[in-house]
Give the backbone structure.
Amino acid sequence: MFEKIISKIEQYDSIVIFGHRNPDGDCYGSQIALRNILKAKYPSKNVYCVGSGLPKFFNIIGTMDVVSDETITESLAVLLDSNDLERSEDQRIYRALDFAKIDHHIDTFTFKEGPEVIDDKASSTCELIYLFAKENSFEIDLVSASALYLGMMTDTGRFQFANNFVKMFSIVRDLCDLGVDPVLLNKVNNLVPEISLDIKAFIYSRVVKRDDGIIYVVASKRDREILGVTSAQICSNTSLISYVANHPIWFIASETDNGGMQVEMRSSMYNVQEIAVHFGGGGHTFAAGFTIKTFSEEIINELISLCANTIKRGA
Ligand SMILES: [Mn+2]
């Protein structure tokens, strides 16, 4: 499955691993695990991961690397958990010498720079990195196993969502056999910053419940400035308005710093990925998002009517 990616990796002495903007547990975990696994297998190669990672895990799973522009221009870029170069948090990816990609998002056919492995049935990119290691008989050390566990746990909503539960749990079992400590990882993952109380209060005070089955929250830039939070921080709270009876689609829309709009959408039963694609975004069937250049009532109304049509169509 990964032959073409391995042959790229073998061609380069320097490899830089990139992930998406607003990195989550799967993005960070897959980057760290792939770096460590490749370093152990190819001690003479330089392997780095770039981006902001998940700082609360830095002292147990490891930190990101600081890499010069010059290094990137001499490296193979491996993009993880992202559709294309545009999604990369570190935009210096465009300067890399060559490219490869491993991802589990629905294919948008926008990555054309090199070989890729996409499996949108995989629970997480971490699951794919595990399979990559197994296929090539690369050793998975305890830290890498913990990083993979973190990504699988977070991208599946703590093992609630998967296309193949047997596969997911058999990998998780193997990671536990390698010594992973789920209690510790859960404790660190559960830790929230103090600001999260203010975000919760804001979201619950602004939630709109519609008769057509949509629940949503809109945050303007001014709202965010008063709270002192980023668009990504607001949008990462869709779980606060999730699974309310008779409301199968929910979303949070936030005005971005440059007057655009970031939206995260979820559904218990309808395809919201198609709606996200309509606005130039993507994701998974029941969890998708997009960012567009304009923040306006018209666009929010268009989004609401697409969601309402989806519910009406029953698709
Ligand atoms: Mn992911």
Observations:
- The first strand starts at residue 14 and ends at 18.
- Residues 134 and 140 are 9 Å apart (CA to CA).
